[in-house]
Design a protein that fits this description.
It contains 8 helices and 10 strands. It is of the alpha+beta class. Strands 1-8-3-6 form a 4-stranded antiparallel β-sheet. Helix 5 packs across helix 6. It is elongated.
Amino acid sequence: MNSFKALRKEELKSMSDRKETKKFKKGDAIFREGERLNGVYCVRDGISKLSKLSDNGKDQIVKLATKGEVLGQRSLISSECTNLSATALEDMEVCFIPKSHIEDSLRDNALFTNAVLKLMTDELRIADNTIVNMAQKPVRQRLAAALLYLEENFGLDNEDYLYLKLSRSDIADVVGTATELLIRTLGAFKKEGLIATQGKRIKLLDKKKLTAIKEGLQ
């Protein structure tokens, strides 16, 4: 959800006039956990990962954000430092809107304020579900869900492989497991004819069975 859709036309124009375009190369940090954000980032093109560093020093990817999404909206309400890092997974172009240009709308536009709060609530709900999944569902089930999510949200390339080519380490961070176990589970999926691989590329061959695994039916 993009809470900026709740802004009035004149508010959007005012922010558009003040926005700053930034470009990031694949692997660049858009912002880092613990950083104080003074505005929000609107994704114009490209895909980024939002991740949280765990106590053992491992990244947990909590969300993948693409065109049209807004990063750092929590900074609009809270003055706290961000609890996530955002990293470009491919070359990206984003618009940065300083918080000072949004505060009037937060104060005067109840629809916009409610939209920002709703987004924060939705993100907390997703985080709660992620915690439950990590604690209760086996890696095989979580991996099937992640692969189906990647196809549904980011599509396929012209050879029907997943468009988003994540490293095995990044997929492990999405699933919430060690890279070695992720590689073994992918290998098992491949032997079962559920997927095909070519380097980093992954093709889903049997979405029906993957869905059954995702739902815990197999």
